[in-house]
Specification:
- This protein is an alpha+beta fold and 189 residues long.
- It has 3 helices and 12 strands, in the order βββαβαββββββββα.
- The strands form 3 sheets. A 5-stranded antiparallel beta sheet has the order 4-8-7-6-5, covered by helices on one side. A 4-stranded antiparallel beta sheet has the order 9-10-11-12, with no helix packed on it. It has a 3-stranded antiparallel beta sheet with strand order 1-2-3, with helices on one face.
- Strand 2 and strand 3 form a beta hairpin.
Length: 189
């Protein structure tokens, strides 16, 4: 996942818009995880072994910072506990087992459910192609809209804004696939 300007984008395993609130919450939850305890000297070897066979890592890369922060996590070691190690620290730590929840995140868990993300101020043309009816082409003319397909007849700007708002407020009820390889069986791809 990568933040592009003010919005999150999912880059792998699929390319999709991210849900800004959900991803920000996930990042904050991970970054704000409190250390449960520190690993005793006589348990450091066991902790490092568990981390080498761990459940995964989370890498945070900040703009303008050369070195990424890597959080390595082990599989659960006991009731609701896991070992962790930060790339900025030498010693392994013990975290609450809930910290590993970020590694169970699936793409659809953090995808944006809005049908479109639209800023009407940056749109200058809208094509509407109803089946079995003539195409409607709307064009921006300053702050107003015209119907190009009807020789620049003025369009009701309030209706154009309402149409855009309606599209922006439409929510996807479910995603049919987590990965792009499944799309052809749904007629997409």
């Amino acid at each position: 996942m990568q933040k592009d300007h003010d919005h999150w984008q999912i880059n792998k395993p699929i390319k999709a818009r991210g849900d800004d609130a959900k991803i920000s919450d996930l990042v904050a939850q991970t970054l704000n995880t409190k250390v449960d305890s520190f690993v005793a000297n006589d348990k450091v070897g066991a902790a490092n072994t568990a981390l080498n066979d761990g459940q995964g890592t989370v890498t945070f890369t900040a703009e303008g910072v050369d070195k990424a922060l890597v959080l390595q996590m082990s599989k659960p070691i006991e009731a609701q506990k896991l070992y962790a190690k930060l790339s900025t620290r030498d010693a392994p730590l013990i975290l609450s087992g809930s910290a590993g929840a970020i590694l169970a995140t699936k793409p659809n868990d953090v995808r944006d459910h809005h049908l479109v993300r639209l800023n009407l101020d940056t749109v200058d043309r809208i094509h509407v192609e109803p089946a079995g009816a003539p195409e409607i082409l709307l064009a921006r003319n300053g702050e107003n809209w015209t119907i190009k397909s009807l020789n620049d007849k003025p369009a009701n700007s309030g209706d154009v804004k309402q149409m855009a708002t309606t599209l922006q407020n439409q929510l996807v009820t479910a995603f049919v696939a987590d990965v792009a390889t499944e799309l052809p069986k749904y007629g997409a791809g």
